[in-house]
Design brief:
Elements lengths: L1 H10 L3 E3 L7 H13 L9 E6 L6 H15 L6 E4 L4 E2 L16 E2 L3 H13 L6 E4 L3 H10 L6 E5 L7 H9 L3 E5 L5 H6 L11 H10 L3 H11 L3 E2 L6 H8 L8 H8 L26
Parallel strand pairs: 1-2, 2-3, 3-6, 6-7, 7-8, 8-9
Antiparallel strand pairs: 4-5
Helix pairs in contact: 1-2, 1-10, 2-3, 3-4, 8-9
Protein name: Aldehyde reductase
GO molecular function: oxidoreductase activity, acting on the CH-OH group of donors, NAD or NADP as acceptor
EC number: 1.1.1.21
Length: 288
């Protein structure tokens, strides 16, 4: 990972998104520490996001979980700390992949109690800002209505086939930014799953617009989301793609092109957390 992080820094990236559940915090922390030592970047220039895992949502576990993440990342504060998923599982179920969870693994802490502990992290200077991830509209409203420190962001799956307009509108009305994960439809997952998912890069509308602008399909997908006012976290280990992703700032889509792309919305979700579908806080029971 060290070379990938160094390439990203050289390309101009400063925001790095990780999570306790990804098992990448330690490798990222080591790489960023080396980058700081070699004067490639300073800590104040970096914006690091990590997430409270679904197996650490009981209020007695929140502070210790962030401290573990900070130790992994080799930093003394996090810029943004998110509640990864509103549904919770037991601590002892930590290593069970989300799709494989069963009702025996479920835990039931009150997410308002979890949020109160998140607020204490800001009070203690351990987190500069706190937010949500994979929360539906009613869950966002419940947290926001009860918050002393408001969530600054809701990180959600969002791409041309899952545009989440109603959820985005709810967040924006409450001054909560929206970060789009899987903004390209996770083509890497498609490869690993033998084409199980839908390929945005083969979508005729996207290909036609890309040809018109002399851009890649990925750039069109990202620019579409950017013009909707979303924050983007595309995943890549390829230096050329890192550069191309940044170049989306250098062109704009027309109103007509945006309208054509908006018509691709078909509620196709890749990350459905099916192992949690019977949990009372499962976020995707609601339409948005």
């Amino acid at each position: 990972m060290r070379d990938v992080i160094f390439d990203a820094l050289e390309s101009g990236y400063r925001h790095f998104d990780t999570a306790h559940a990804y098992r990448t915090e330690s490798a990222l922390g080591e790489a960023l520490q080396d980058a700081i030592i070699y004067n490639k970047v300073s800590r104040s220039e970096l914006y690091i996001t990590t997430k409270l895992p679904t197996y650490h949502m009981r209020k007695d576990n929140v502070v210790s979980s962030l401290r573990e993440s900070l130790k992994n990342l080799r930093i003394d504060y996090i810029d943004l700390y998110l509640v990864h998923v509103p549904a919770s599982i037991k601590v002892e179920s930590e290593y069970i992949p989300y799709p494989s969870c069963s009702t025996d693994d479920y835990d039931y802490p009150d997410i308002i109690d979890t949020w109160r502990e998140m607020e204490k992290l800001v009070d203690a200077g351990l987190a500069r800002a706190i937010g949500l991830s994979n929360f539906n509209a009613s869950q966002v409203e419940r947290i926001d209505n009860n918050a002393r420190i408001k969530p600054v962001v809701n990180q959600i799956e969002c791409h041309a086939y899952l545009q989440q307009n109603k959820l985005v509108d709810v967040c924006k009305r409450r001054n909560i930014s929206v970060t789009a994960y899987a903004p390209l439809g996770s083509p890497g997952l498609q490869i690993r799953n033998n084409g199980r998912y839908w390929d945005l890069f083969e979508e005729p509308v996207i290909l036609k617009i890309a040809k018109c602008h002399q851009r890649t399909p990925a750039q069109i997908c990202l620019r579409h989301l950017l013009q909707r006012g979303l924050i983007l976290i595309p995943k890549t280990e390829n230096t050329d793609r890192m550069r191309l992703n940044l170049e989306i700032k250098n062109f704009s889509l027309t109103k007509q092109e945006m309208e054509k792309l908006s018509k691709l919305d078909s509620n196709k979700r890749i990350f459905s957390f099916n192992g949690m579908k019977d949990h009372p806080e499962y976020p995707f029971k609601d339409p948005y």
